[in-house]
Write a structure and sequence with these properties.
Chain C: It comes from Teichococcus aerophilus. The complex is a heterotrimer of chains A (256), B (313) and C (311). By secondary structure, chain A is of the alpha/beta class. Chain A folds into two domains: 154 residues, Rossmann fold, CATH 3.40.50.300; 72 residues, no CATH class. Chain A has nine helices and ten strands. In chain A, helix 3 packs parallel to helix 5. The longest helix of chain B has 28 residues. In chain B, a hairpin with a 2-residue loop joins strand 2 and strand 3. Chain C has twelve helices and two strands, in the order H-H-H-H-H-E-E-H-H-H-H-H-H-H. Chain C has a two-stranded antiparallel ribbon with strand order 1-2. In chain C, strand 1 and strand 2 form a beta hairpin. The chains are: A alpha/beta (256), B mainly alpha (313), C mainly alpha (311).
Chain lengths: 256, 313, 311
């Protein structure tokens, strides 16, 4: 397997808080890499830097050998890197179907002024996508009338609609009802594996990590504290104490 | 409302306007102005769809009207004056748009207002070029090279306005259903997402802005052809406010609402403005507040509601 | 250069003094606009109308004083009384009846509501004070003129414009900074401006603070108008030109910057008055030219800070 994304010595501080303090990470092609760690460790910051939302103060991020730093988010997207969000970023005046169709249209570069958004080709693809995520029943509901889990899935579906080579997901299962969680995760994993997508995801649920991750990176104070296969990392006593232990007493992230 | 019903309502509305113009000749002038304003308001609608409001769009109306006034002494063909003036207006929209596209909401609205005030002041102060508040009178334009006068000239301008209105209504309706138009609402609700889908929000808004300047230009040309007298008042903030008012009054959600609002507004103004000139803005402002607070769908929304109730009953 | 200066030096000096005086009055309006924006996140388009109403009210009070044979020096406190009246009557009314209703609405609707208010207030002025120019030069005449030495020449300049206006503006600037940093109310306003939710969760009555701030902002606008009223006569349309001018100041400085607004007001005031003496046609253009040039280089304004939205 070859390296798809390579981060070297990334540094970024907000005031005195070091969100990235020398991050070195290689993401291999077609792997599922989970990022775990306590809140404020800089997990989201890593995604934000990779997708062009934040610019690090030092270091480099190469994707297929191409430097990403200094590129705008929309230019990075066109290289085949899509992301989903911790707080779903949906077009709240559009329906779920229209949200998905917008993503399809965006990928096609077809921001044509005179053919409808819901032209047959786009509608079919959007419906097919929603079907794979089990979102079809909600297709005609407006995005501001959805529950948290559905919003989250729609958000991920929009990222998947971009047909990325690399997908970055920020807490894909937070807000999804516990009973549905594993089914959703299995579906998501299958969709992504079928499409040959490389995935990097921030995750707090260790069951989810154990189930689908190929490798796990542990974040701590802007550094990578440990990296390896889930079997090794999740059973590491230090990680169990520092990361998984902290989780039990921590305030749920979504409420912050 | 589905597309077929909308087309039907549009055709019916157009027929009523023609009948009115035929039955009461003095209404021809009023209705021509109303159609012109409806075309301008379509542009305001596009921007409102993106959650933006321009308090200075009358500037583009005036740019086109003055272009007509400057070109007409050399070339009087109305059907050439129209595209020329509209393109000049759109070009100005592109230039200014490149600057104001960096901003949203408050700054977007206020920068447009500030620029239009500057333009107004220049029209007023540069007397040697613009004749100040006296304005410029236009020679009678020709249509397809033919000299028209009196009623036939009025009919020609009215027909031109009606055709333009119909074309732009269709264009805007299609535009709004297309990805580029749908993305306007995306700017309002989640512009960041557009960027992360690889779509530049600024471009989406700029396209709508230039189209709105083009339509304002067409409306301005009709105004110039109808009144054959252009003055700086065309660019004053009250003229811009009028467009925003009509957009909200008619109903920001629909293309037909723009024309419904414009016709109702102009007819009312003809009767009321003369008697209530000193309090006209006061009345407009109060009605605007009432519509925003109590009938956010505007006249079109109210009409739809009535229609639905009748169906249900 | 020297020859030009000796020919035009006097004019230039006069322009500078004029510019500072107009900067002082526009600063008062801009700072009120900033303050209100900070707490309400609304740019009040009708803010310029409050300036105009403040000016007209000051003129009316002075007229009342002089026509009833009361002491003319009362025309000075009348300026402040006018501002206080306008602020206290219109401020809470506008905030409670209108702005509070649309608090949770889309930004564009909030903007439209203040625009509607602006339309209304512009005509209210016409209905009350008519369309003929109204002047209020009593305070200015009372203080007379002072000879300002300028190089070899001497410029006679009104003491009112030289001392009273800039003095009060400076007092406002310093007083506001002190108020915001040293008093409890000031700190609460800052807290609500920075993070409304956090402030509310700390037990701050943000609704009360909002009304208070809006009233205070309205008072500053009216004071700006009242102070400017002795310098030039009021005509319809003053409100419109004031709102765009004070917006230009706020945009040039950066939204929410108080000290920055003072500097931008001086830049724009000077630019405008120098234009009046050199190219009168361009008077109205210069402030916006300054604004556009600044914004082209720094989209967030001279002292503004860009915020990266959290996603």
């Amino acid at each position: 397997m070859s390296v798809l994304l390579s981060a070297q010595d990334l540094r970024l501080a907000f005031g005195g808080v070091k969100a990235a303090d020398g991050i070195n990470l290689d993401v291999m092609e077609r792997e599922f890499l989970a990022i775990i760690g306590p809140n404020g460790a800089g997990k989201t910051t890593f995604i934000n830097m990779t997708t062009g939302h934040l610019t690090p103060q030092g270091g480099s991020i190469r994707y297929e050998g191409k430097e990403l730093l200094g590129m705008k988010p929309r230019a990075i997207v066109r290289l085949g890197i899509a992301r989903s969000f911790q707080l779903p970023q949906l077009f709240t005046e559009h329906t779920v179907l229209e949200n998905a169709a917008m993503a399809v249209a965006a990928r096609e570069g077809a921001f044509s002024p005179f053919r409808p958004l819901l032209r047959p080709a786009f509608r079919e693809e959007a419906e097919d996508l929603l079907n794979r995520f089990g979102l079809l029943p909600a297709a005609d509901r407006r995005a501001d009338a959805l529950n948290e889990g559905t919003r989250k899935l729609t958000d991920i579906a929009m990222a998947v609609a971009m047909k990325p080579k690399l997908l970055l997901m920020d807490e894909p299962t937070s807000g999804v009802a516990a009973a549905d969680k594993m089914a959703v995760v299995e579906t998501l994993a299958r969709v992504l594996r079928d499409a040959g997508v490389t995935a990097v995801f921030v995750e707090h649920d260790m069951d989810v990590v154990g189930r689908i991750a190929d490798r796990v990176a542990v974040w701590g104070q802007g550094r990578i504290a440990a990296l390896g296969p889930p079997g090794q990392i999740l059973n590491d006593p230090v990680v169990q104490r520092e990361v998984i232990g902290i989780r039990a007493g921590e305030v749920p992230h979504a409420a912050a | 409302m589905n597309a077929r019903l909308e087309i039907l309502a549009g055709i019916l509305g157009a027929a009523v306007l023609v009948l009115l113009a035929y039955a009461a000749p003095w209404l021809r002038f009023v209705l021509t102005i109303a159609l012109a304003k409806g075309i301008m308001v379509l542009g305001i609608l596009l921007l409102l769809r993106a959650g933006q409001v321009s308090f200075g769009h009358a500037m583009y109306v005036a740019i086109a009207a003055y272009s007509v006034a400057f070109i007409a002494p050399h070339m009087r063909e109305a059907l050439l004056l129209l595209p020329l003036a509209a393109v000049i207006s759109a070009a100005a929209g592109l230039l200014i748009g490149l600057f104001v596209m960096r901003y949203r909401e408050i700054f977007f609205g206020m920068l447009n207002l500030a620029l239009s005030m500057v333009f107004y002041s220049l029209l007023e102060k540069l007397y040697t070029v613009t004749h100040g508040t006296d304005g410029i009178r236009l020679p009678v334009p020709t249509f397809l090279g033919r000299e028209l006068a009196g009623a036939s000239y009025e009919w020609a301008v009215f027909a031109l306005a009606l055709v333009l209105a119909a074309c732009f209504a269709v264009v805007v309706r299609i535009y709004l259903a297309a990805p580029l138009g749908q993305a306007l609402a995306g700017i309002k609700t989640r512009e960041a997402r557009l960027e992360f889908m690889g779509v530049p929000g600024r471009f989406v808004l700029l396209a709508a802005y230039v189209l709105s300047a083009l339509m304002a230009g067409c409306g301005g040309t009709i105004i110039a052809l109808t009144s054959r007298h252009v003055t700086p008042a065309l660019a004053y903030w009250t003229a811009s406010g009028e467009l925003v008012f009509i957009a909200i009054l008619g109903g920001a959600g629909s293309v037909l609402g723009a024309f419904l609002g414009a016709v109702v507004y102009e007819l009312t103004r003809v009767y009321a403005a003369a008697n209530l000139a000193d309090a006209w803005q006061l009345i407009l402002g109060s009605v605007l507040l009432l519509v925003i607070l109590f009938a956010p769908g505007g006249l079109f929304g109210i009409a739809q509601g009535l229609l639905r109730r009748r169906k249900a009953a | 250069m020297m020859a030009w200066l000796s020919d035009n030096g006097l004019l230039l000096g006069l322009a500078v003094l004029d510019g500072l005086a107009s900067a002082a009055s526009i600063f008062m309006v801009a700072v009120g606009l900033n303050l209100v924006f900070g707490v309400l996140r609304i740019l009040n388009v009708a803010h310029g109308s409050l300036y105009a109403i403040g000016a007209y009210t000051a003129a009316s009070i002075t007229l009342f004083l002089t026509s009833h044979g009361l002491p003319v020096w009362l025309s000075f406190p009348a300026l402040v009384v006018a501002a206080a009246l306008v602020g206290v009557i219109l401020g809470p009314l506008i905030e409670r009846v209108l702005l509070k209703r649309v608090e949770k609405q889309e930004p564009v609707l909030q903007l439209l509501v203040t625009f509607a208010l602006f339309m209304i207030l512009e005509d209210v002025q016409k209905l009350i004070w008519g369309v003929q120019p109204v002047s209020n030069d009593t305070p200015m005449r009372l203080l007379g003129t002072i000879d300002v030495p300028f190089g070899a020449d001497v410029i006679p300049f009104t003491a009112y414009q030289l001392f009273v206006l800039p003095g009060i503006a400076l007092f406002t600037l310093v007083g506001l900074a002190w108020f915001m940093r040293r008093t409890l109310t000031g700190r609460v306003i800052v807290a609500v401006t920075t993070d409304r939710e956090a402030a509310t969760s700390q037990g701050i009555d943000s609704a009360k603070i909002t009304m208070l701030t809006f009233t205070f902002g309205a008072m500053l606008a009216a004071l700006g108008g009242a102070l400017a009223s002795p310098m030039s006569s009021m005509v319809p349309g003053v409100g419109a030109s004031t709102i765009v001018l004070s917006f230009a100041v706020v945009a040039t400085a950066g939204l929410g910057q108080v000290e920055g607004a003072a500097i931008a007001a001086v830049m724009i005031g000077l630019g405008r008055s120098i234009a009046v003496y050199l190219e009168p046609e361009l008077e109205v253009v210069v402030p916006y030219l300054i604004m556009v040039l600044v914004l082209l280089v720094r989209p967030q304004g001279l002292f503004g800070v860009t915020e990266t939205r959290r996603i």
